[in-house]
Amino acid sequence: MTQEKIVNAITGEVTYRDYTAEELAKREQGQIEMANFLAAKAEAAAKRQALLDKLGITEDEARLLLGGN
User: What pLDDT does residue 67 have?
Assistant: First the structure.
């Protein structure tokens, strides 16, 4: 089972406790959400790069054309 490490900053004492089923479910859900976020981000980057390639310009050139710095 997954455990949490707890360190007392004053005494340096280290203890461990098992995650509850609810904490494990939240952790798993968070990992799924992060994977979905990263996949969407990668897809957007690929689409942006495909458009830049189609236009034959770099990202810096696109920023200049759009008025960004």
Answer: 87
> What is the residue whose two structure tokens read 């900053």?
9
10-66 pLDDT tens trace: 999 999 999 999 999 999 999 999 999 999 999 999 999 999 999 999 999 999 999
Domain locations along the chain: 3-66
* 3-state DSSP percent of the chain in helix, strand and coil, to 5: 60, 15, 25
Distance between CA atoms of 61 and 69, rounded to whole angstroms? Answer: 10
Tell me the C-alpha distance between 57 and 64, whole Å.
11
